[in-house]
């Protein structure tokens, strides 16, 4: 297992920013303060195409499984954070919990193919402030799962990215959305997990900026 320790006060060489946040610093891990009105979406229903959310990315080639745990304290409607798999602006997948109001949040996944986003959601209590995600890739197909405690997994979605080419290095990692301060402590990479393909575990703590 290869471990990336974000408590070392530097971003590992394997990682790079997409839409670098206006502020980030190291304090018991990597802390990210996002800019206002940041989002990812392409066209469908709403008509807008924001592509300015903050991601810390790394490159992965071939089949893999990524797991992550996210904790969060959202304050404003649409606040969310989670996991992203990204080829480019027009082709990507993300999963997250998005705040709707004090009672209800949306546990959901967005799949964007050829410049159009498709959002699938289920309502959960806004009292929930932690979620595990697992994203598994086989060819161009993806299985998206969630868990409340990291042991018992539930299917969110099975989907396909049309533009995925096996000879291309794909970009993957975390998505930060409106108004979040994000702390990333450790990342582990295991070569034996599911489908005999790489696994990446992300241990995170996400807190809202004041």
Characteristic key phrases:
mainly beta; 9-stranded mixed sheet; globular; disordered C terminus; 0% helix; 210 residues; 7-stranded antiparallel sheet; Jelly Rolls
Account of the 3D structure:
- With 210 residues, the chain is mainly β.
- Helices cover 0% and strands 60% of the residues.
- It has strands at residues 2-5, 16-18, 23-26, 30-33, 54-60, 64-71, 80-88, 91-99, 104-113, 116-125, 130-138, 141-147, 154-160, 170-176, 180-194, 197-208.
- 37% of the residues are buried.
- Mean pLDDT is 77; it is low at 178-183 and 185-210.
User: How can the largest sheet be summarized?
Assistant: 9 strands, mixed
Helix content: under 10%
Whole-angstrom Rg: 16 Å
Under the CATH scheme, which class? Mainly Beta
Q: What's the number of extended β-strand segments?
A: 16
Reading the helices and strands in chain order gives: EEEEEEEEEEEEEEEE
Query: Which term fits the overall shape?
Result: globular
- How widely separated are the two ends? 36 Å
Q: Regions with pLDDT < 50 over 5+ consecutive residues? A: 178-183, 185-210
So how many helices? 0
Indicate the multimeric state.
single chain
Average pLDDT rating = 77
Strand content: over 45%
């Amino acid at each position: 297992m290869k471990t990336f320790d974000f408590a070392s006060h530097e971003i590992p060489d394997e990682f790079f920013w997409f839409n670098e946040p206006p502020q980030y610093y190291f304090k018991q891990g990597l802390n990210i303060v996002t800019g206002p009105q940041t989002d990812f979406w392409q066209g469908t229903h709403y008509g807008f195409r924001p592509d300015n959310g903050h991601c810390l990315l790394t490159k992965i080639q071939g089949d893999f499984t990524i797991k992550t745990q996210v904790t969060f304290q959202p304050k404003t409607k649409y606040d969310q954070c989670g996991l992203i798999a990204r080829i480019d602006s027009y082709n990507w997948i993300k999963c997250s919990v998005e705040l709707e109001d004090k009672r209800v949040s949306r546990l959901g996944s967005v799949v964007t193919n050829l410049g159009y986003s498709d959002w699938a959601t289920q309502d959960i209590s806004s009292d929930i402030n932690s979620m595990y995600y697992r994203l598994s890739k086989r060819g161009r197909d993806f299985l998206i799962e969630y868990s409340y405690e990291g042991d018992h997994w539930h299917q969110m979605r099975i989907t396909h990215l049309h533009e995925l080419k096996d000879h291309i290095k794909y970009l993957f990692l975390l998505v930060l959305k409106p108004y979040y301060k994000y702390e990333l402590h450790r990342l582990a990479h295991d070569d034996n997990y599911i489908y005999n393909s790489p696994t990446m575990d992300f241990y995170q703590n996400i807190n809202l900026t004041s």
